[in-house]
Amino acid sequence: MFESFESRQTTLPPHAPPTESARAGLYHPTLNEIKEDSISLKAQQYWQKKDAKWDPEIVDRIYIKELEHNRFETKKLMLLEFSQYLEKYLWPNYDDEKATLEHALSIVLMVNEKCRERIPAWEPIIKNGVHDVRDLPYILMLVSLMTWHCFGTSSLRDQEFATNKNLKKQWRAFEKKYKNAAQKEQLLFQRTWISNYMKGFVEVLYSIPEVGDMDPDAIAYCERFLEFLIDLEAQLPTRRYFNTLLDDHQILVLCKLSPLVKREKGSELFKQLLEILKFYAGFEIHDHTGLALRDDEMTELHCKKLTELQHIAYSHFKESLILLALSNLSSIEKREDLLIHFGPLDHEEIIRLCKFLNIRYQKLVGEGVYDKEFLLEVLIGKFEKRISQIDKINSLPLYPDENTLFDDAVVKTQFYSGDLPLALPKLNLQFLTIHDYLLRNFNLFRLESTYEIRQDIEDVVKRLAPRVTYPSGMNEFTGWARMAVEIEQFNIVEVTKPNLGENKPAQVKADVTYKLGRYTESIQNEWDSLKQHDVLFLLSIQAHDGTSDKYKDETPFREHFGLKYVRGCEVSDIIGDDGKPIDEVGKPRIEDRRPKISGNTRTLPVLETIRDLMQSELVVPEWLHNVFLGYGFPGSAHYIMLQNLPKEIDFRDTLLDYDHLKIVSDEKDTLSPPYVIQFPEVRKRELEKSENIDPNELKKVENEIVVKTYTMPNMVEAIKSGTNPGLTMVVGPPGTGKTDVAVQIIANLYHNFPEQHTLLVTHSNQALNQIFEKIMALDVDERHLLRLGHGEEELNTELSFSKYGREKRLSLLKEVDRLAKSLNVGGEHGYTCETAGYFYLYHVLSKWEPYIDKCRQGLEKRNVSVEIMRNEFIFTKYFADAPQPLFPENASYAETLEIIEGCFRHIEKIFTELEEIRGFELLRTSYDRANYLLTKEAKIIAMTCTHAALKYDNVVMEEAAQILEVETFIPLLLQETEDGRSRLKRVILIGDHNQLPPVVKNMAFQQYGNMEQSLFTRFVRLGVPTIDLDSQGRSRPSIASLFNWRYNNLGDLPVVHEQYEYKKANAGFTYEYQLINVDNYAGKGETEPVPFFYQISILTTYNGQKALIRDVLRQRCSWNPLFGQPAKVTTVDKYQGQQNDFRTRNVGHIRDVRRLIVAMSRARLGLYVFCRLALFKNCYELTSTFDRLLERPTELSLRINEMWPSNRDFDDYSEPFTIVDVVHMGKYVFQMMQEQLEYAKEQNAEMEGLIKDDSPEEQIIVRNDEPDEDSEESAASDDSIDSQNNKLY
């Protein structure tokens, strides 16, 4: 049975944390439902048997009795799809000539069901020997130029041909092809199909009455048809000719004046879809060239149409339209103005005007002509000025208020199941223009952020548990929330005047004071970490008598809890006790726990950035523009296709030694690193440019790099491609070293192009810190590194790489003072960078230059001894803290001179760096100084995608497949232009589209809007060339076989064959991987599992399962030092990019193959999957993995009494001990615990015997002293002993 969610008034799910709300509204059949349904019984009888025979009557009966009779119930479709109806029965037995209509429609239904469930729909069809039907040119023929035969008047076609002569040539070619065709039926069908389809839609649309009962299927059909038209209009290949046909058929006006639109209820979705169709029908793009039209060009086209109308009015309608002909254009572009001029015309005059304007006046369906009202609407729609989308967006509040947040539509979208279309933009493979791309993302991102904010607010308010107290009638919060505090004082301090053309204040500034004293230290630290530009929400709650009652889902949330107002704000300052803003540098801890923040209403950063971009001149690199929009040759942005490639690349430490070089080279002579390699592409291009080309030399260069033939492995090719300009796409399967590739590319860019700036972006702070720490270990000057965001404090280093901690000016100036003191020069020379510069010029160089000249001349003339050089060295006192002796006794003259010059280079570097940051003298605040570092000094800037609004030459994105597309694209747009062109030179995207996509909580935005599609995944689907890393070094080869089928030629690194831990078995387990079938326990399904594995990560696909397992572990294991907690209990989604030695799996709804790949690829040494086998063994998408898992027993097989580490070979499966079921497992664990307790008692008795042999005095000292470091280390050592003992099992 389905659970009804129509009456729910909250985004909080009924029985799950907020993050699982998206799944709450979907129907997921239980095992019993699957087994008992008639569909499953038919599947077992007809197509799941090995010797199943084909019977076409079965297909017809299932369609009529199971599907059509039940109105195509979702449950029936899901069960048919789950039983592999398409793969095993429908498609293998499909014959074009013999198949019935029910057979064809059944295939359509199964493909649609797969799409609804987000399961690959076409693979079963393609694998059965059919080309990918999605790529057939036949589809485009249905909306080609031939469809213009269906125009209401041929003069419209001639008008279009007059503006584009190429169209006329194509038309003549089609006419010739049709004339010479032997069978014209197919061509006739192609050119009339879309027109006939629209006519059929109009018939259905006008069959729906304005009042009374209506057919829900007819309305659903009309809504789906509008969705289809929107899809055609939203992609350039299909809209090129179709948009003109849509205008000729007047579908927009027919829909607007239809009885359905006039209905008070039931037409809301249809109206919303109609608005989207209207928007795309008039989109700012040239339909034939695909060029985006600017506002001034759109205005010019609009004026041109009005001018033509005036010419016709003046020439043919002088008596009735003379005022229109003589009016200025601005007075005839509004609806009411046009009605004034067209309204007085009679029906015959309007028809005559339509003939002059090439407008269809005869009915599309039926006979006769349209009435006056209809034709007036057509004329107004043609000449009315279009409302600017930019103006619409500017009028929207980017911060959602209480009305936006608690709109009922927000709740409905979270339970989207795919049954109906939605009035949402779709993120497809192709986009019309950059503006179209930003607009779709803006709308989706705004809705998604609104949804998430509402979830957070509802969760917080529910936890606060407000109620009204008597007799005061004041609010009281009986609960508490980690992410919310009660405001103690709120004072508005400034209200600025509205901006020009607006009627609301441009800014409202207020002081907010709150107390934190009653919270734990960890929560206090979180609130203390607030800083400028952090976003907060202010809630106004007025509780009433019913607020304290238990909340029911069908009750409006705002009304129940008395939530009156919601306003967003941004922190502008943290105010100290003295009333002055606290500087971020060395920000003191506020001990009285009464912080005051000053905030003003501003927009959410990403939404504001998108809105600002839409109003600016968008500049995308020319080499990336077409690929990004999804048109043209997919490989056009690859470095091989670009000009101005670097002549040589310094690979630095990419190739570690000569043995490493020999892997990719045929060179025989030994070379020493670093290796500088010149590539053949550049040398060949240079030879081709020369006037006299030697063919033999050109042929010789084709496969030659400098002095050797070079065969590039994938990892080195990825680094080479990333160092060259253009777009680099690196697909990194699990354990193949994606992070190392990113680090090496960044290091090579830093050394080969020192004048360029590189932006490093990742999805998470953890991944960012991993990369940043590896970069720190390379030969990169620390002053050129910058880490932005909240995760900087988690870096494993004592250095500060935040933009506030990178100011070295003060420490450098202290060195200047120390140098002045060592030279006996009085004065405050380290006061500023300017005084330091004068000191260097007049005191350092004036003494250094005569001295070094004397030393260098002595090297030539041999008139200065080493002893004189040492005695006269002017910086001896300054380098007194350097390793001594500064000059070795046996150092030669040349060696001593090198030491002297090295010392001066150190001093010179101090003053060089001070000169570089001399601009700090003009910057008063640390914020300005930090931004100076960001823009002037830092060469490698690392941040998460939420901060990526900066301007740089190169962008490197790791985890690119997990980043929302718009968050990936924003850094590519926000580049400083050079002569009107983007300065962006390289885009390196590193990720894995076969693993988890970006997290989108709302199901409608995720599936219908396709918001979970990353830019990386879209590029892969478009066919952009990728470099696939092909060697994994994480998992045992046998475990890797569970997921490497998803990749092309994924092999293993030698380490997984050679290291000892990979050669030996997992202590206590018979197999290195195994699937364990978990049947009902005590007649029930999954209720309270008993997971126990030491130092094992437990992954589950549901947050609900995660919470349950954690609770069980907390109650049964955490208190017992013999067991303790597993290393990690989390969801699959949160564990991508990490690894562990062993892994257990509670498999939930995992038909998404990407989630399966992540789950299978985390383990290094052991993988143990716990699941209900019957649910998954028939899943077509999982067969490659589950077939391999099922090669082994499905009962847990252990090797008891085995010590850790094991000396048994990994392929030794002898002496297994089988755990039959949950009861058996419980008994075994209990017996093991008893044995451990006995062992612990024996150990304790032995220790007590040793203590009794000690002196009483020592015994008292040990017991009565406070624990010192030794005792703590001893305790830790004891814990380690227990842990090691526990590993016996």
Q: What fraction of residues sit in β-strands?
A: 5-15%
Outline: globular
Distance between the termini: 45 Å
- Please mark out the parts with pLDDT under 50 across 5 or more consecutive residues, or reply none: 1-5, 15-25, 131-135, 584-594, 598-603, 666-674, 707-712, 1087-1095, 1142-1148, 1255-1289
Structural class: alpha/beta
Cα-atom radius of gyration: 37 Å
Q: For the report, how would you describe the main beta sheet?
A: 7 strands, parallel
Count of helical stretches: 54
Per DSSP E runs of 2 or more residues, the count of β-strands stands at 27
Helix content: 40-55%
Largest beta sheet: what is the strand line-up?
A: 12-13-11-14-17-10-18
Would you give an account of this structure?
This protein is α/β, with parallel strands linked by helices and 1289 residues long. Helix content is 45%, strand content 10%. The strands form 8 sheets. A 7-stranded parallel beta sheet has the order 12-13-11-14-17-10-18, sandwiched between helices. A 5-stranded antiparallel beta sheet has the order 3-4-7-6-5. Helix 49 (1153-1161) links the parallel strand 24 and strand 25. The radius of gyration is 37 Å and the shape is globular. The two termini are 45 Å apart. The N terminus and C terminus are likely disordered. Residues 467-604 form the RNA helicase aquarius beta-barrel domain. It is found in: Nucleus. Residues 42-127, 140-386 form the RNA helicase aquarius N-terminal domain. InterPro entries: Aquarius_b-barrel, Aquarius_insert, Aquarius_N, CWF11_fam, DNA2/NAM7-like, DNA2/NAM7-like_C, DNA2/NAM7_AAA_11, P-loop_NTPase.
